[in-house]
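Methods — Computational structure assignment.
A single polypeptide chain was analysed. Its primary sequence is given first, followed by the predicted tertiary structure written as structure tokens.
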Amino acid sequence: MKMPKIATIICAAVVLALPCVARAVPLGTVDILHIDYGAFDPIQVWGGGYDGSFVYGGVYTLSKTASSGQGDIWPDGELGSFCMELNELAPHTRLTYDVVMPEEAPVPIDLLGGGMGAAKAEYLRELWGRFFNPDWLGNGPFTSQQCTDAEAFAAAVWEIVLEDLPASPLDWDVTVDATAGELGFSCAAADTATANSWLYALNGNGPKADLRAFVHDGQQDFLVEVPEPATIVMLGIGGALSLVRRKRAAV
């Protein structure tokens, strides 16, 4: 069977005539580069300049090397993220991104006419808190189920970011573009039933993850989780032990 050609996520030539909206003040910066994927699968999408093209749905692995402000929360090294928009490229050269709250993302702000807002950000926090699986991160190998689930999670993220807010969580549907105009999202060739079931469960009563967005005007923006203090400590201990081992090896 002939496999579908995978499209690179590229800029859509869409200009929206929207009023100027003030940009959020960054909470910090991170220097990042997209280097790989965690668990993922190809997914067919409509929206963000695509009309049935296949893109990668799942975890985007970023390499972080420097930071300031709240960017210092993440230790240097690899970290997992999810793409927030379909209309821009992931960075293949190291760039400085701003760290902002999810409600202030994505940028450029003319994509949505401003940040996504508090309601969508709360949906994302609960989606992550309920259904994100850390086993999707890293270099694998990943099971087919992990890849399918990570792809469904990406579809749910795009649905929340790119679609108009529904009257009820039961009205989310990743198979239908319910937003008029250039915005909106729908997908196929994925476990859409799982994506929709996760979206239907977002009633505001589930656990909420502490999330930030890495944003750069002209490049793909990413949703990331703030690591728990214990995780930060363990990562710091791991880095210190690696440094000790290197010093001993050099003696």
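Note: Residues 30-244 form one domain.
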